[in-house]
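Hi V.,

Quick status before I head out on leave. The structure for the redesign project is tokenized and pasted below; the design run finished overnight.
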């Protein structure tokens, strides 16, 4: 999946940086993205995953256009008005590390705490707020060649 973002601060932009070799094979201008964002994308990211890849519920503080290159990507979307439903808390940055026996262990990375949604629409009773029952997630699946625009905070 390729994501074009209109950011208001520097973003990862991994296709032009980490994957510079691949980017040399991509057109330097993407007219439909420039037209949709009303400027050249400030960041172009390439996300590669498999059927086990999952992204935590989060909001982006910038617009995104997702383009599915191959395979599928499933989204669970909540509008910004559902903020009270997601039980956002300030947490220390952490990552998962697979240990002996295949178990996943959470390893705190330190640094400043970051806002993180702790409620999962697919496990509703866990970390719910008194408003979570009012959330109406929108589920979208992208197939090869599909494109999805997400406004800021979606």
């Amino acid at each position: 999946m390729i994501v074009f973002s209109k950011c208001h601060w520097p973003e990862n932009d991994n296709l032009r940086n980490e994957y510079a070799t691949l980017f040399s094979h991509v057109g330097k201008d993407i007219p439909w993205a420039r037209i949709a964002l009303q400027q050249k994308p400030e960041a172009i990211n390439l996300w590669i995953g498999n059927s086990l890849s999952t992204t935590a519920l989060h909001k982006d503080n910038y617009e995104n256009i997702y383009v599915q290159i191959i395979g599928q990507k499933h989204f669970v979307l909540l509008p910004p008005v559902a903020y009270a439903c997601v039980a956002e808390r300030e947490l220390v940055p952490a990552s998962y590390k697979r240990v002996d026996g295949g178990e996943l262990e959470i390893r705190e990375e330190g640094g400043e705490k970051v806002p993180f949604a702790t409620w999962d629409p697919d496990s509703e009773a866990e970390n719910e707020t008194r408003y979570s029952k009012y959330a109406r997630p929108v589920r979208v699946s992208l197939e090869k060649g599909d494109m999805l625009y997400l406004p800021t905070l979606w």
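Above is the designed sequence. Confidence is low (pLDDT under 50) at residues 6-10.

G. will cover questions while I'm gone.

Best,
W.
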